[in-house]
Design a protein that fits this description.
38% of the residues lie in helices and 14% in strands. The protein is of the alpha/beta class. It folds into 2 domains: 8-37 and 68-263, Type I PLP-dependent aspartate aminotransferase-like (Major domain) (Aspartate Aminotransferase, domain 2, 3-Layer(aba) Sandwich), CATH 3.40.640.10; 266-397, Aspartate Aminotransferase, domain 1 (Alpha-Beta Complex), CATH 3.90.1150. The strands form 2 sheets. Strands 1-7-6-5-4-2-3 form a 7-stranded mixed β-sheet, sandwiched between helices. Strand 5 (186-190), helix 8 (195-198) and strand 6 (208-212) form a beta-alpha-beta unit. Helix 13 crosses helix 15 (386-398). The radius of gyration is 22 Å and the shape is globular. The N and C termini lie far apart (61 Å). Bound molecules: pyridoxal-5'-phosphate. Pyridoxal-5'-phosphate is lined by residues 92-94, 97, 118, 121, 161, 165, 190, 192-193, 212, 214-215, 224, 226.
Length: 400
């Protein structure tokens, strides 16, 4: 087996170094860049070697649904970055979420989850899992008493997202982890909005962290991917077999793109965050903007918690354009540089109108309860010049 770059003590290296070198294995050619092993399977020198590989006596690869050298580099780099014992990559963020949940659930189990979740995550909890007699209580994520009150004798899992989409509300991860553990349940955190650089859920007590790598980790709009991070024991006892037998594997090509994405993750997130903070502050002064939400702004109701559990306010800004849906649509249609899209974390700045897209399946009452008004838009701030982005927003607001 080729030597893998895993520092003896990862704590001695800063994230920027791990993002460039973590997990790299080199073929006998000694290539500089990570090799792309675009192969389904592997060949063996002898029937005996093949037998040993299958028995697990020889640690090599068997089949790319089980594992692949390029995918393994991506997983190791993610584990080092997160400070997790183990990572497994998946075909998409949703493949990561459903694997993290389903691999440990059985009929009769109960989940407590923050209400403000990515749409497909809500579908899994509300529409899909009840088919197998797994029930969920949805709570207001900011209300710790609601988390406590929702616990049942059969509660197996807590699940949350923070900051939430699209209203950028926060959940106190450490406090919820404590409630989960007191109830004998595991806490799963979907950490997409914060990125692995700005928030470390495991240090706050989370047992499992999931990412859509499609977002900041690729960060350049190319590939779908996902990651589940957990303890070695959880992966061995639950996740590994589930992934092997059900097959939500990432393509080695996509894993390679993600590896290259990780090399520039901190540069991109830092710049995008800087621009997002500047845009949020300027937007707050615009007459046609009724409200701005950004976790590190002093007017965010949970700014203290944000500063406690995050290293920065993130790369997304949410704001309410005057004039409801018509105002938001006129604004979106007048943008020239910022594009209309539902993705986030991209190099390109992208604007979403949640009420008519990601959250359209909810009733107006349910949306109101979630704080998603018809004038609300979510801006994922990209890598363009912040002054150009501001100019674009200003000229589009003038048309509202
Ligand atoms: C995008 C996203 C997902 C799903 O990821 P895919 O890669 O699109 O499957 C899950 N959770 C959050 C918070 C997301 O933003």
């Amino acid at each position: 087996m080729a030597h893998s770059f895993i520092p003896a003590d990862p704590a001695t290296l800063h994230p920027d170094s791990l993002l460039v070198h973590g997990g790299t294995t080199r073929s006998p050619y000694g290539e500089t860049a990570e090799a792309l092993y675009l192969t389904q399977g592997f060949v063996y020198d002898s029937a005996e070697a093949c037998e040993a590989r299958f028995k697990g006596e020889d640690p090599g690869f068997v089949y790319s649904r089980y594992g692949n050298p390029t995918t393994a580099m991506f997983e190791t780099r993610m584990a080092l970055l997160e400070g997790a014992e183990a990572a497994r990559a998946t075909a998409s963020g949703m493949a990561a979420v459903q694997s993290a949940l389903l691999c440990q659930l059985r009929a009769g189990d109960h989940i407590v989850a923050g209400r403000a979740l990515f749409g497909s995550c809500r579908w899994i909890l509300e529409d899909f899992l009840p088919r197998f007699n797994v029930t969920t209580t949805l709570v207001d994520g900011a209300d710790l008493d609601a988390w406590r009150a929702a616990v049942q004798p059969n509660t197996k899992l807590f699940f949350l997202e923070s900051p939430t989409n699209p209203t950028l509300d926060l959940v106190d991860i450490a406090a919820v982890a404590e409630i989960a553990h007191a109830a004998g349940a595991r806490l799963v955190v979907d950490n997409v909005f914060a990125t692995p650089l700005l928030q470390k859920p495991m240090q706050l007590g989370a047992d499992i962290v999931v990412y859509s790598a499609t977002k900041h980790i690729d960060g350049q709009g190319r590939c779908l991917g996902g990651v589940v991070l957990a303890s070695e024991k959880f992966v061995t006892d639950h996740l590994q077999t589930y992934l092997r037998q059900t097959g939500p594997s990432i393509s080695p090509f996509n894993a390679w793109v993600m590896l290259k994405g990780l090399e520039t993750l901190s540069l991109r997130v830092e710049r995008q965050q800087q621009s997002a903070a500047r845009l949020a502050d300027t937007l707050a002064d615009f007459a046609k903007v009724e409200k701005v939400v950004y976790p590190f702004r002093p007017d965010h109701p949970q700014v203290e918690l944000a500063r406690r559990q995050m290293k920065g306010g993130g790369t997304l800004v949410t704001f309410v354009v005057e004039g409801g849906k018509a105002g938001a649509f006129r604004f979106a249609n007048a943008l020239r540089l910022i594009r209309i899209s539902n993705n986030l974390g991209d190099a390109k700045s992208l604007l979403t109108h949640p009420a008519t897209t990601t959250h359209q399946r909810f009733t107006p009452e349910a949306r109101a309860e979630m704080g998603i008004s018809d004038g609300l838009v979510r801006l994922s701030v990209g890598l363009e010049d912040a002054g150009d982005l501001l100019a674009d927003i200003e000229q589009a607001l003038a048309k509202v």
